[in-house]
Model the fold of this input.
Amino acid sequence: MNSLSLKSACSVAVLSLFLSTSPVLAQEMPSPEEMWKIILQQQEQISRLEEKLGMTEQAVTETQEQVAETQAQVAETEMIVEAAVDSMEETASSSVGGVTSGTSLGGYAELHFNGGEKDQIDFHRFVLFFGHEFNERVRFFSELELEHSLAGDGKPGEVELEQAFIEYDLTDNTSTSIGLQLIPVGLLNETHEPPTFYGVERNDVEKNILPSTWWEAGVKFTGKLGDNLQYDAMVHSGLKTPTAGGNAFLIRSGRQKVAEADWKNTAFTGRLSWMPVAGVNLAASFQYQDDLTQSVMPTSATLFEGHADIRRQINTTSEIGLRALYAQWNLNSMEAELIGRDVQRGWYIEPSYKYMFGNGQAIGFFTRYSSFDNNAGDTILSANKQTSFGVNYWPHENVALKADYQIDDYADETKEDNRINLGVGVQF
Done:
């Protein structure tokens, strides 16, 4: 309220007072001096009211300024708190037990029950993955594995260092890796976490012919040739197969696992992968080793492997899949030829169907027919055949419950073991 409106209000009040007392005034009319005195008193009251009003407005202004300052302080405090919370969250998400930022932890595990003649339960694998990213171009990867729960003298399992290598990006499309690493061959050798494949056990072809899981020490180059083509080239340590006994020249028996391994002869592996459309991967690998035995009995060997991995969605909930692989070793040795192991080969085909419920849940059905022969150079029928069919259930995309039934048709009937297999696997 301004001073003019306040004066008007006071004048009205005086006039109202004057009119309400008009009968009295008519009898006792004040003199001009008294009237002037009354006006001066009213003016003094008006001045006091104006002074009080000014003080009130100043107080309001000061209060508003204090409120604004308080709000600014609150906003600044909120920013500090948010920054502290973000820092704590970043620290928590990028560290495990004090591990610095850039270090990652993962792994996988699988428990198997094998029926039939085995009638056995086994915690087959427990694997821990450790990685560290030094910067945008240099990183480290490693895997430590415990097989069959117990390791040591007289125990069924063993502790293995499956991977330990440095990866360095040379360009945006080319990288190199140095150290102990998986050989770029087959479908399962590099990607074998339980939720990623059908069946409880890994297939016999990739186990006995390639032989998965297979790692060596060496240098690998990986690069892209356009959008759909990729190559891998690796120079590495090689296999060392026995030259006598029942395991002579057997490929799987030649794995040294980079444990004080002989490296008298260098091996070379190359792979070319073509991904024409999403969900289709076609690849071929070739390996050459000067001497498979690394001994006084030189045996040069070549491996050719080709595979297809096709997974295509037919609608929003259904996926059809097909995996197929062929692999063959050729050994240049009279001794290997005498026992029929100058040629060792295997193949399989695996169609599948997967239904996805949503929220990571899915169920899949598969069947697989496989054949492998470590004595394919012999004229005597020596192929081992196996038919498997079963189901995978994923309550989460990284957790798989498995069941399958296998039917064996081996050259050595004593090794046949038709059975049901149950398993649970997880990766994280």
Summary: The first strand starts at residue 103 and ends at 114.
